[in-house]
Amino acid sequence: MQRDLTQGSITGTMLRFALPMILGNLLQQFYNIADTLIVGRYLGANALAAVGAAYALMSFLTSILLGLCMGSGAVFSLRYGEKNEKVLKKSIFVSFVMIAAVALAVNGVVFLFIDPIMGLLCVPAEIYSMMREYLWMIFWGIIAVFLYNFFASLLRSVGNSFVPLLFLGIAAVLNVVLDLVFVLVLHWGVAGAAGATVIAQYVSGIGIAVYTYVKMPEFRVAGSDMGMDRDVLREISQFSVLTCAQQSVMNFGILMVQGLVNSFGTVVMAAFAAAVKIDSFAYMPVQDFGNAFSTFIAQNYGAGKKDRIRAGIKSAVMVSVAFCIVISLVVWIFAEKLMLIFVQPQETGILAVGVQYLRIEGAFYCGIGCLFLLYGLYRAVRKPGMSVVLTVISLGTRVALAYVLSAIPAIGVAGIWAAVPIGWVLADLVGFLYYGKVRREM
């Protein structure tokens, strides 16, 4: 199932590799979509607000692990493109040990400091206990998130995007079934929704780890590969830490925005919780296409095929922009109907705020589509620091403008939504300008 991305038609190769990744991450969204849908419909607006606010915190925490795995995956792709199996195995060992240690540390910290963290998020008193109950359960899944993302990144780095999709599909179905049982049959409330997600995460994480060990003997690490090679550690650290910083900055900015949203009360919190799920679902395909594009570029960069890289960049931009135009129209036109998936028709206040959010953000998906391509490009050509710079520009603008604009009475909460596309556009401009320098180097 491995795919050599240095051969074959460029657009077709990228799309065939990207499609399972897109389907996989759409399925991954079902972890939180299922919670939001069932909680919103059957446990009420306060429960929806609690789960939505918890999602922002979990996204930040898991982004640390996701960034480390993505950075390591870029190194794996480079080594695979070079056909350097010995260094590839050493890289696998070093990155696994390093990321596992981080995962254990993160898990310990969040359990110890759960209450101070919730205090920083300005969680309203009426949902505090509910959100704490949900978080306490969901935190048990952090190790499972590490396992799945590490082995998924390893398999994708060598062109196998189907197996990660398979395990996510199994987990997504299991999550929905357990959600219905725990919430509707056993009446375990938000803790039941969290428990369903955690069980599903461990099924996918352990499952893909066992599959990789049994079915991919070429990745089994022998005793001679288990040293902490200084050069390998330096390279893994450079890519992983910078990609982790990029993902963490991105989600920390979102977490700060979540704190601002919380200050507007439970109606806005509930609307934001539902609208963010729709928003994430809408642009998830271009995010995953950006990750597939990054693997394509990394393999060809390792193989020294620079003409193929330039042609791949042009093809990827055209595909991404075309998709974003279509999805923007869909979200703009069907914003209210999409909100009604999560919210009861009588919740008119929540519906109005959610529709406003979707129509402001949905008009500018081309901005985020191009930004994901820029992230992937700079990570693949050994410039992961530039991805961090673009993220800081995008999220820094978003957070600063969100606080400034929302404080103006005539603008209010709409200022939080408007700050997002402005940040995307500014980061895109910087990324495209810097690309001129990179193109000359290639």
TrEMBL record:
The name under which this protein is listed is Probable multidrug resistance protein NorM
Record-linked InterPro entries: MATE_fam, MATE_MdtK, MdtK-like
Chain segments annotated as transmembrane: 12-34, 54-80, 92-114, 134-155, 162-186, 192-214, 315-335, 362-381, 388-408, 414-435
Compartmental location: Cell membrane
The record describes its membrane topology as: Multi-pass membrane protein
**Record flagged with keyword Lipid biosynthesis:** no
Q: Chief localization class? A: membrane
The family assignment reads: Belongs to the multi antimicrobial extrusion (MATE) (TC 2.A.66.1) family.
Check the record and name the PANTHER family matching this protein.
FMN_FAD EXPORTER YEEO-RELATED, MULTIDRUG RESISTANCE PROTEIN NORM-RELATED
Native organism is Enterocloster hominis (ex Hitch et al. 2024)
Q: What does this protein do?
A: Multidrug efflux pump.
Q: Which UniProt keywords apply?
A: Antiport, Cell membrane, Ion transport, Membrane, Transmembrane, Transmembrane helix, Transport
